[in-house]
Specification:
Helix content: 25-40%
Radius of gyration: 17 Å
Order of helices and strands: HHEEE
Mean pLDDT: 78
Strand order of the largest sheet: 1-3-2
Shape: elongated
Strand content: 15-25%
Structural class: alpha+beta
């Protein structure tokens, strides 16, 4: 019974990568498809963050105000 929590944690780690919950699946192409661009460390002022390009790059896009 003591191994059950360890197995559950391992299963969650495996499923996290498979289902796309981690930023590993993020890419610059996906960001550009959404109308954004990749920026290192943070987005410029006045630009909103809409996702991730990689572990250290954010996907940024201009904020549109109606």
């Amino acid at each position: 019974m003591r191994i059950l929590p360890v197995l559950c944690a391992l299963l969650l780690l495996v499923l996290q990568g498979v289902t796309g919950l981690s930023p590993v699946g993020a890419s610059a192409q996906e960001c550009e498809r959404r109308g954004g661009f990749c920026s290192h460390h943070s987005c410029p002022p006045g630009i909103g963050r809409i996702g991730l390009c990689s572990e250290r790059e954010f996907c940024c896009r201009m904020r549109w105000y109606p």
